[in-house]
Amino acid sequence: MSRLIVISNRVSVASAAGAAGAQGGLAVALKSALREHRGIWFGWSGQETPEFTGHLDMQRNDGVTTATIDLEPQDIDEYYNGYANRTLWPLFHYRIDLTEYDRNFGEGYERVNERFATSVLPLIEPDDLVWVHDYHLLPLGSMLRAKGVNNRMGLFLHTPWPPTRLLTSLPMHERLVASMLEYDVIGFQTTEWLESFLHYVQKEMGLKVGLDNSILYKGRRVLARAFPIGIDYAEFTEAAQSEEAKEAHDRLKLSVHGSKILIGVDRLDYSKGLGERFSGFGRFLADNPDLAESAVLLQIAPPSRGDVASYQQIREDLERKTGHINGAHADVAFVPIRYVNRGFPRAQLAGFYRAADIGLVTPLRDGMNLVAKEYVAAQDPENPGVLILSQFAGAAMQLKDALLVNPHSVEHVSETIKLALEMPLAQRRKRHEKLLVSVRDDDVVRWREDFVNTLQGKGKTTQPQHQAA
Q1: d(CA 436, CA 451)
Q2: Is 61 helix (H, G, I), strand (E, B) or coil?
Q3: Is a pLDDT exceeding 60 seen at residue 15?
Q4: pLDDT-derived band of residue 324, with 50, 70 and 90 as boundaries?
């Protein structure tokens, strides 16, 4: 069996894999694959070094081998805080108004990708499969090809892919996409992002797309496919049944004194629509004074990317909006919004989800959104809560029995909250049963097996044919 070399911007060192998994998708998704394929997980340690040396810190714990490098402050500023998070991230989430184009950012991005390529090269053996993750490392495959790597290589993008008209605002956009075509398999979260990518390569590069969504490029066949990511259903449901989860559930229930609970769990990011969510909840409180003291919104929002100005601004805006809404609707024994700027262990989150009558998942744009799936998995099937989900989250294409909402419309959010709170038990059960089938069957194990099998040439190769716009 071929080894699997996973490459991502950050690496969850195996001894801390459980903690990393509490924060989201990638670590949970890849642990079992790395064990099964006796693989290596390579990437940045998250640490700074005064001068880049390329030194590899190799560790093996819990059956997973990791290899990490440290980066210089200039690398972090230009590659990570710069091109990745001030250029590509906002552009890929349709926020061209926040997208910054800086030549130094682009140079830093290519420099760090070259450093990744040089550092990981000695670890790659001839029969290894190479699986690269996300927007930080789009050109890495082409750099490895230039160094003589002929292995099967795949790229999976965890973010949306923007429409062609937005992408063409990026300087040297064709060079970036051309570098991606050095991979053998390019994976997207949804067919929408896949369609956008295929539209670009046809319209801007004049390339042919086959019936199986393969792209002919420089005599090679590159397969582009949608691989919807899921949660580790077995692991998460086990966590939801733990004593830690039950204690978290009881603690939250007791604290609201019989009020209905709405929950949001999001990284503090403008793509998550937190300001719009708070405004929608505030409108609900104003429009339904008879219900205003019977509903509490718990918003858990761990801060991220604090060195980027737009992230500092969103935190200030949310704190101001929270104060305004609470000031207008709170009572001596009641506060409608509980806004918490820290993360919680996975089991505790599962308990909070189970306690919540509504999962409020309303990003403005999201590649998938696993919180929506975790909320469904955590529910009591006899008395499940209601998932309110943004129509612009990738998960909306799978979770069609959620209450889909336009997060830009405060009226729609307000009306949907009221609808969810008044939904009869029989209807809640029916919706939950259908949602659970998708969450259970399309889990992270199926996702990674599908991608790895496709990379090996064993997976399905047909999806709905792309229709050129």
Answers
A1: 23
A2: strand
A3: no
A4: very high
Per DSSP, 184 falls in state: S
Which among 131, 132, 124 has a CA at the least distance from the CA of 149? Answer: 124
Q: Are 341 and 301 in contact (CB under 8 A)?
A: yes
Instruction: Flag whether the pTM goes above 0.90.
Output: yes
User: To 5 degrees, how large is the angle CA 461–CA 466–CA 469?
Assistant: 165
Phi/psi for 290 (5° steps) reads -70, -20
Under 8 Å between Cβ of 188 and 197: yes
Helices (H), 37-158: 73-75, 89-92, 103-120, 140-146
Catalytic residue among 366, 442, 443, 450: 366
Contact 117, 140 (CB under 8 A): yes
Give 237's DSSP letter: H
What SS3 class is residue 328?
helix
221 phi and psi angles, rounded to 5 deg: -110, 115
Q: Which amino acid is at 296?
A: V
What pLDDT band is residue 63 in, cutting at 50, 70 and 90? Answer: confident
CA distances from 194 to 54, 174, 228, 292, 415 (A): 35, 17, 11, 42, 33
- Tokens read off for 212: 């199986």
CA atoms of 56 and 62, how far apart (whole Å)? 19
Kindly give the residue spans of alpha helices, DSSP state H, lying in 356-404. Answer: 370-378
| Residue 19 in this model has a pLDDT that exceeds 90 | no
H or E element that contains 340: strand 337-340
249 flagged as catalytic: no
- Do residues 97 and 120 make contact, with C-beta atoms less than 8 angstroms apart? no
C-beta of residue 192 within 8 angstroms of C-beta of residue 155: no
| Chain Cα centroid distance, residue 435 | 19
Sheet containing 260-265, strands listed edge to edge, beginning at the edge strand earlier in sequence: 337-340, 295-300, 260-265, 358-361, 386-390, 403-405
pLDDT of residue 62: 79
Place of tokens 């250029």: 87
Q: φ and ψ at 331, to 5 degrees?
A: -130, 175
Tell which residue, 467, 468, 463, 391, has the closest CA to residue 186.
463
d(CA 260, CA 251): 14
The CA distance from 44 to 160, in Å, is: 23
159 with 191: CB under 8 angstroms? no
Q: In the annotation, is 329 catalytic?
A: no
| Structural domains of the chain, with CATH | 4-230+445-455 (3.40.50.2000), 234-441 (3.40.50.2000)
Helices first, then strands: H and E counts in the chain: 18, 15
Q: Which of 37, 93, 133, 158 is catalytic?
A: 158
Selection from 250, 288, 234 nearest residue 422 by Cα: 288
Instruction: Using DSSP bridges, classify how beta strands 185-188 and 386-390 pair: parallel, antiparallel or unpaired.
Output: unpaired
Other Cβ atoms closer than 10 A to 155: 28
